[in-house]
Amino acid sequence: MKIYDGGRAPNPRRVQIFLKEKGIEIETQQLDLNSLEHRSPEMLAKNPVATVPFLELEDGTVISETIAICRYLEELNPDPSLFGESSLERAVIEMWNRRVEFGFFFRVAQSFRHLHPAAAVLEGEQVQAWGEKNNALATQYLNILDDQLAKNEFIAGPKFSVADITAIVAFQFFKPARVIMPDEGHDHFRRWADAIVQRPSMEL
Amino acid sequence: MKIYDGGRAPNPRRVQIFLKEKGIEIETQQLDLNSLEHRSPEMLAKNPVATVPFLELEDGTVISETIAICRYLEELNPDPSLFGESSLERAVIEMWNRRVEFGFFFRVAQSFRHLHPAAAVLEGEQVQAWGEKNNALATQYLNILDDQLAKNEFIAGPKFSVADITAIVAFQFFKPARVIMPDEGHDHFRRWADAIVQRPSMEL
To answer: What DSSP state is assigned to residue A101?
Structure first.
């Protein structure tokens, strides 16, 4: 199998960290997003929705969507589990991964895509007011994460999971997205982030 | 277990259809979204991100997020499978469900939330230009779905799946979202939609 990747963009980063946490190596071809290589006819024939990364299997089947890729690789390589080991654990991890995707990761990404001039090539018409709304919502969501991390070592409970990967990648994208981390407060979130960035999987 | 539900809003509808397809009955309490009952202190204590629907288990554990709820119920009630039976089938279904969520369902929802005056109570500050952008993108996505349905009976392949539920609920929300179905073309999409709405699970 082969991954068509997109460098340091947030979704590529999520899969890269996931693979390192699992100890999986897969042949990778980098696509240059700024020159819209992911939208070339050759790549659109593989993945018509033009997202990165995507996984191409030996028989030519393409799996796009970060979480679909990660869950498929988890099924082939169950240990260590990053999606949960029981039905209930899987439900709680999926809930938190989705909460973080929609409430935090997506907000940070929208702030980047609508406020950063370099994102215009990807976004087309940028909507300033939408970027600003998401910028504020991303910062607000730190309260939800801080409350959760006051009671739990990791985002979805006592174990590191795919939800932590989603959250740390969003946090590390604050700067290009122009989201400001408040100077004070959010101590539980800071404790969590300081620990996560030490993991070997986070090395660039 | 008990579901805290939100009437005919799109995510509640997805879970309602899923339950009927599976033949599962669960005690349900309706929350009135227009009076913001889902944001009452009692409900925020259960689900701090204030989404509907959410599932409360006997031990008090809350599972929010439509797809986390559906996947958990699928694990407890495997037949008929709506998330896939093999690793590869599950990957393709998750890919298509997510493609439809981000490219279609979400676009329709954003069009509603930013263009319909009645959505202001849920959205707060509405961003007209963002609503219009999503309105156009929802219509454009019909091309992706039509291409896929030219080659497949259902959205994710030869079997009805959760991806069909996501897509039909988005399509049925076109009117409140002010998305216009083009008068001509998209014949494969129309064939699919005409068949899906006949399913007993679609009855209101």
So the answer is: I
**Do A68 and A93 belong to one domain?**
no
Distance to chain A for B53, nearest Cα, Å: 12
Domain boundary (B76, B104, B133) is at B76
- List chain A residues with CB under 8 Å of B103: 49
**In chain A, which residue's Cα lies nearest the Cα of B59?**
A88
Please indicate, yes or no, whether residues B66 and B94 belong to a single structural domain of this protein: no
pTM as predicted: 0.97
CA dihedral A103, A113, B67, A160 (to 10 degrees): -60
Distance between CA atoms of residues A83 and A162, nearest Å = 6
Tell me how close the Cα of A186 comes to any Cα of chain B, in angstroms: 17
What ipTM is given for this predicted complex? 0.97
Each residue's pLDDT tens digit, A23-45: 999 999 999 998 999 999 999 99
Q: Give the CA dihedral B56, B60, B64, B66, nearest 10 degrees.
A: -30
CATH number, residue A67: 3.40.30.10
Round to whole Å and give the CA distance between A109 and A96: 18
Whether B64 and B94 share a structural domain: no
Domain containing A158: what range? 87-202
